[in-house]
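May I ask for whichever protein you like with its backbone structure tokens?
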Amino acid sequence: MKILIIHGPNLNLLEKRDKYIYGGTSLEGINRLLKQRAKELGMNVEIFQSNHEGEIIDKLQETLENEVSGVVINPGAFTHYSIAIRDAVEILKVPVIEVHLSNIYSREDFRSKSVIAPLCRGQISGFGISSYILALEALKLLDRNIDRR
């Protein structure tokens, strides 16, 4: 089971951002934890980060040609306005889970709207690094046919 994990803009600078909102773990630290948990779940993960909308779209489109069982995406600020990423997610034939480290609904008003979430299997936000871990576990459960609604 191969899972694509996409980190959007500014996530490469997590350790320099507001620790109260984003925690104190670097992106490299998050990626290490994701690889470890994926291995425990019998998954293989491909991890990608970009600050560029087009690169994220290209990576999502690659899943149409590659053997990918699911996608975990933290679109960062693109969450709130990228119709182009939304359209790329809409085309995918695998479950997509949107994640956020912070609870986007408890922050500024403009952050409480995701244009991408309605096309995802689900959204997990507000649990810090565990948002990503929970997304991996959800994809594993979906793969086991526990909940295929």
Summary: The chain has a mean pLDDT of 91. The two ends are 20 Å apart (CA to CA).
